[in-house]
């Protein structure tokens, strides 16, 4: 598989593939969060490989090894187009006949929710951790208004995201590794800020339109994205969404003390959906 693909507006985005042990059962298409990159999911991917799942991720525009202004997207629709291009790349290059699961964390989780609600037939299921549906903290009204105004006037203007890195995990080594990773950044543009708000609002508004199985996780002590918003999404989505709130869990559940529980539940979910598909 090529290690890059082109977006509809001509950016080159970087792709990373982790190969399954033996013949793969399915493919996990991975969408990372704001300010990070897909290589941070290497251990998760290797764990999934051992279960027989291929994993393919990409660095989003303005992130990691991909092109584009750091932390900027022109619109929510552009994110959806990027995901279309990514899945088309996955299908055409290597996995024409394998089922696909989408996986998304944080902003990537909100993007995955938006995508499966719009294009439910592209994949057989989705796994989402700590989606950005609402912030876990209250943004001052003046700051919110200023951000929305700047998104209309100067959408590319970039500011520090204000991410509380110490709140991503209860494991100190994870926090330190995040801080020294040269591919992480703390930039977010006004256009991205607007697109994030729109992604969260749209997903909550359309949750009842869910048509494929979804496994949703959120930590009760997530100080970055709102666990209650995930519960709200699940309540609206109905039986196709299985939601688990992780008691005490921080934002990065795959890098937290509950990691083994999350891995096992993801594995069980995918195996169950594949068995249902084959029966």
Question: How do the helices and strands line up, and which of them pair or pack?
Answer:
Layout: E1 4-6, E2 12-18, E3 26-31, H1 42-50, E4 53-58, H2 76-93, E5 100-105, H3 107-118, E6 125-129, H4 141-153, E7 158-160, H5 172-180, E8 187-189, H6 190-205, E9 214-219, H7 227-237, E10 241-246, H8 259-278
Parallel strand pairs: 3-4, 3-5, 5-6, 6-9, 9-10
Antiparallel strand pairs: 1-2, 2-4, 7-8
Helix pairs in contact: 3-6, 4-6
Give a description of the structure.
The chain is of the alpha/beta class and 279 residues long. The chain has helices at 42-50, 76-93, 107-118, 141-153, 172-180, 190-205, 227-237, 259-278, and strands at 4-6, 12-18, 26-31, 53-58, 100-105, 125-129, 158-160, 187-189, 214-219, 241-246. The strands form two sheets. An eight-stranded mixed sheet has the order 1-2-4-3-5-6-9-10, sandwiched between helices. Strands 7-8 form a two-stranded antiparallel sheet. Helix 3 (107-118) packs across helix 6 (190-205) and helix 4 (141-153) packs across helix 6. It is globular, with a radius of gyration of 17 Å.
Main-sheet strand order equals 1-2-4-3-5-6-9-10
Strand content: 15-25%
What class, by secondary structure content? alpha/beta
Q: Figure out the total of helices.
A: 8
**How many strand units?**
10
Average predicted confidence as pLDDT:
93
Shape: globular
Order of helices and strands: EEEHEHEHEHEHEHEHEH
Q: Distance between termini?
A: 31 Å
Indicate the percent of residues in helices.
Answer: 25-40%
Determine the oligomeric state from the structure: single chain
Q: Uncertain spans, ≥5 residues at pLDDT below 50?
A: none
Q: Give the radius of gyration.
A: 17 Å
The biggest beta sheet, please? 8 strands, mixed
């Amino acid at each position: 598989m090529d290690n890059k693909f082109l977006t509809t507006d001509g950016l080159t985005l970087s792709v990373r593939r982790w190969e399954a042990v033996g013949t793969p059962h399915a493919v996990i298409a991975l969408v990372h969060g704001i300010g990070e990159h897909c290589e941070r999911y290497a251990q998760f991917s290797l764990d999934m490989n051992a279960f027989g799942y291929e994993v393919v991720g990409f660095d989003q525009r303005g992130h990691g090894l991909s092109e584009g202004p750091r932390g900027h997207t022109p619109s929510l629709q552009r994110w959806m187009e990027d995901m279309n291009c990514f899945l088309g790349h996955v299908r055409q290059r290597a996995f024409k006949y394998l089922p696909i699961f989408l996986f998304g964390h944080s902003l990537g989780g909100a993007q995955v929710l938006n995508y499966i609600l719009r294009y439910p037939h592209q994949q057989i299921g989705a796994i989402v951790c700590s989606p950005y549906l609402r912030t876990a903290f209250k943004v001052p009204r003046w700051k919110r208004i200023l951000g929305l105004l700047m998104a209309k006037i100067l959408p590319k203007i970039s500011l520090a995201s204000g991410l509380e890195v110490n709140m991503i995990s209860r494991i100190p080594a994870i926090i330190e590794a995040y801080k020294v990773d040269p591919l992480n950044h703390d930039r977010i543009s006004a256009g991205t800020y607007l697109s994030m708000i729109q992604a969260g609002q749209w997903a909550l508004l359309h949750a009842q339109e869910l048509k494929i199985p979804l496994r949703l996780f959120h930590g009760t002590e997530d100080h970055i994205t709102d666990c209650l918003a995930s519960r709200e999404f699940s309540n609206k989505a109905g039986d196709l969404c299985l939601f688990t709130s992780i008691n005490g869990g921080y934002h990065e559940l795959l890098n937290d003390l509950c990691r083994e529980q999350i891995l096992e539940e993801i594995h069980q979910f995918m195996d169950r959906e594949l068995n249902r598909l084959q029966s």
